[in-house]
Amino acid sequence: MSVIDRIRGRPDLGIDDEAGALLRAEALSVSFGSGPVLSAVDLEITPGDMIGVVGPSGSGKSTLLKALLGTIRPTEGRVVRRPGTTIGFVPQVERIDWNFPVTVAECVGMARASGLRTPWISRSERAEITAVLDRLGLDGLGGRHIRDLSGGQQQRVFIARALFTGSAVIFLDEPTSGLDVRTRHEVLHLLGDLNAEGLTILLSTHDLNGIATHLPTIVCLNREVVGAGPPEAVLTPEILERTYGSPMQILEHGGMRVVVDAGPDASVIPITRRASGQ
Fold first, then answer.
1. Alpha helices of the chain — where are they, by DSSP H?
2. Cα end-to-end span (Å), the chain
3. Within its chain, how far is the Cα of 86 from the centroid?
4. Strands 35-45, 23-32: pairing kind
5. Mapping DSSP to helix (H, G, I), strand (E, B) and coil, where does residue 192 land?
6. Lowest pLDDT segment from 47-61, 99-113, 197-211, 262-276
7. Is the pLDDT of residue 174 over 60?
8. Strand-pair category, 256-261 with 268-270
9. Is the separation of the CB atoms in 98 and 151 below 8 Å?
10. Which of 19, 89, 135, 137 has the fewest CB atoms inside 10 Å of its own CB, making it the most exposed?
11. Mean pLDDT score, 133-141
12. Of 11-20, 162-171, 176-185, the least confident
C-alpha cells in the first residue's frame, strides 16, 4: 500500500474512473477592476491526470487555480466538482512566512487542524506524518524548523501537507519557482512518482524549461486556453507565440525536437519526452 493510500485509510482512492471528471471548468471567466483575467476557459480534470498550466506572468494561471478551488468567484461560467472530491493546495513558496515558529511535522499536521496549537496531532497522526515525510525524502526532519530547510525541502514539506489532507487531487501554484535546475527536476520527478501512485495533479508554471519531459498534458493559457494536449501536439510555434507573445521556432537538434525562443531572452527548450525509465 502506498503512503497516499495509507493516509486515506483504504487500499485505493475510492474513485470510479468511469464516472467522468473530478473537476470541470465550463466557460469560466473571471474579471477584476482592471478587466478580464480569464475568458471562457474550459478544462476537465479526470482521475489520474497530471496537467501543467503554462503561460507568462499575468496570464491568469494562479487565478484559474483559485477559481477551481472556489476561493475566487467566477464572473461567468461555472466550476463543477464531483461530490466528495477534496483538493489539497500547495501555494507559491515566495508567499510563505518562513519565520513562523513551526516545525516540519507541525506544519504538515496543520492540514487537519482547526487551530494553531499542537495537541490536535494524535499519536496515529504523528505516525502518518512520519510516513509521508519519509515518502517525500524528508525522513528525520520532522522536528526541524521550516526556515532551516533548503528550497527543495521546503517545497516538499508543503507537498506533504497537501497529501496529509487525504485529498484525491492536489493543486500546486508555481512549484518550481525559485529552485535551481536540478531541484526543479527533482520536484517534478517526485510529482510524477506520486501521480503514478494514483494522485491527480494540476500545477501552474511560467517556466517551460524541461516540463515537457515530465508532464503528459499541457494547457497553454493566456487569459484563454490557447492549446491543450500532449507536449508534442501543444508546443508548436503558433501556439507558443500566441501564449507568450514571442516568435518561436521548432528545430531538430541531436535527434531531439527543441523550441527556440526567438525573442530578446532566447532559450532552447527540449520538448521530446524521455523514454520510460530514463
1. 3-8, 61-69, 104-109, 123-135, 151-164, 181-196, 231-234, 237-244
2. 25
3. 15
4. antiparallel
5. helix
6. 262-276
7. yes
8. antiparallel
9. no
10. 19
11. 93
12. 11-20
Query: Distance between CA 13 and CA 4 in Å, rounded?
Result: 9
Distance set, CA 31 to CA 20, 63, 77, 142, 204 (Å): 29, 10, 12, 41, 19
Rounded CA gap, 239 and 223, in Å? 14
pLDDT at residue 168 in the model: 85
Sheet holding 268-270, edge to edge: 248-253, 256-261, 268-270
Q: In what order do the strands lie in the sheet with 50-54?
A: 87-90, 169-173, 200-205, 50-54, 217-222, 224-229
Residue type, 71: T
Confidence band of 213 (pLDDT split at 50, 70, 90): confident
pTM of the prediction?
0.84
Q: Which of 52-66, 117-131, 201-215, 230-244 has the highest mean pLDDT?
A: 52-66
Query: Which domains are seen in the chain, by residue range?
Result: 1-86+166-236 (3.40.50.300), 100-159 (no CATH)
C-alpha cell at 182: 536540478
- Rounded mean pLDDT of the chain? 82
C-alpha angle 105/109/114, rounded to 5°? 145
Which one-letter amino acid corresponds to residue 52?
Answer: G
Q: What is the DSSP secondary structure assignment for residue 220, as one 8-state letter?
A: E
| 202: Cα separation from own chain's centroid | 4
Tell me which residue has cell 510555434: 237
- The residues, any chain, with a CB within 8 Å of residue 149's CB and separated by 6 or more, are 104, 141, 157
Task: List all residues 6 or more positions away from 139 whose beta carbon is below 8 Å from its beta carbon.
Answer: 130, 133
